[in-house]
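Changelog-adjacent note: as of this version, every example in the card shows the full chain rather than a window. The one below runs 155 residues end to end.
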Amino acid sequence: METGLLHLHNLLRWVILVLLLVSIYKSFSGWKGQKAFAAGDKKVWLMTMIAGHITLLLGLYQWTIGRMGIFTSGNQSFADVMKNSATRFFQVEHPVSMILAIVLITLGHGMAKKKVTDEEKYKKAFRYFILALLLILVAVPWPFREIGRPWFPGM
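Full-length structure tokens:
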């Protein structure tokens, strides 16, 4: 079960990246094109947020009781965790960055509910989504990194 959840978590990164790119495109084109806020924009932003939250829940499971989880990886001191780059990445850097990215995605989606001008909605959502994308790109264990995972795990 643990391997399946890890593969699902890794596979969902592609769903989030695609939805985030679509959300960025929609918010940028709405902002620069002076478009009226549409229900379709709100739906895409909602789907991006839902995918992010599902992936976050799977990640929190992995972070707590997964293979390298804080409760299953032994009684390591904080200093020991910080000395090992792989452990530090999966127990500190990756979770903190991804939680911040999901907060930014949630704030971007929250702009759809704000009673501000459409231009302001698109502009702020665009900024939140861009920051979230940057955090995700930096914090994903890409295959070319020392602590990398495969492009498509389990395949």
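Structural remarks: The chain is about 70% helix and 0% strand.
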